[in-house]
């Protein structure tokens, strides 16, 4: 009886090990497919990953990120200009509601505008760290510039939010507002500020 139970448990253990190995292989294959798909997409869009040992390629990426952010900021228009509190007052069911409340829900995550370039910069920093090759002085300099770019991106986003508290921050109470943005494994930001309202003298 004990021998039979032992054999059954042994068979279950063997099957469990086989199952975990199949799952491990499936996860590896899926990750490989995602990496190949990203590499192909980057190739088609002429945005191949830079060599972590090539300062010119790293600087090219850095200049592209800076240009993209500056162009995005210059072309951005405040969503408050499109607000129309009378948009619900219509008999046309296909007309889009453009009240401040509706537009705030659509454009509330201003961090999404900065997230793509920050993610690319973090991926390049990771490739530099994992390259395993001796780091030259120029590569170390570009690495520090990429780190500064990430820091500057967060500063610009913070300045943009703080410059228009009533537009980009959520009201907590009559005198305080906050802003929250989170991207898994990339960024978590929380800001709070006093609202621009007159306060009674002490």
TrEMBL record:
One of its GO terms (molecular function) is microtubule binding. Pfam families: Casc1_N (PF15927). Residues 4-192 form the IC97/Casc1 N-terminal domain. Belongs to the DNAI7 family. PANTHER family: DYNEIN AXONEMAL INTERMEDIATE CHAIN 7 (PTHR20929:SF11), LUNG ADENOMA SUSCEPTIBILITY 1-RELATED (PTHR20929). This is Casc1_N domain-containing protein. It comes from Anopheles maculatus.
């Amino acid at each position: 009886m004990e021998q039979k139970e032992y054999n059954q448990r042994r068979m279950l253990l063997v099957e469990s090990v086989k199952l975990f190995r199949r799952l491990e292989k499936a996860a590896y294959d899926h990750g490989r497919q995602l990496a190949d798909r990203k590499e192909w997409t980057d190739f088609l869009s002429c945005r191949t990953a830079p060599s972590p040992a090539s300062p010119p390629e790293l600087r090219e990426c850095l200049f592209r990120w800076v240009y993209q952010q500056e162009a995005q900021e210059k072309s951005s228009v405040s969503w408050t200009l499109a607000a129309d509190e009378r948009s619900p007052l219509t008999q046309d069911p296909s007309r889009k509601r453009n009240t401040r409340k509706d537009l705030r829900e659509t454009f509330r995550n201003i961090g999404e505008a900065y997230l793509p370039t920050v993610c690319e910069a973090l991926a390049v920093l990771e490739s530099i760290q994992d390259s395993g090759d001796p780091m030259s002085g120029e590569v170390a300099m570009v690495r520090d510039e990429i780190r500064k770019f990430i820091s500057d991106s967060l500063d610009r986003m913070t300045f943009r939010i703080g410059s228009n508290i009533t537009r980009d921050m959520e009201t907590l109470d009559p005198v305080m507002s906050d802003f929250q943005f989170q991207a898994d494994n990339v960024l978590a930001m929380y800001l709070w500020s006093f609202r621009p309202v007159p306060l009674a003298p002490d």
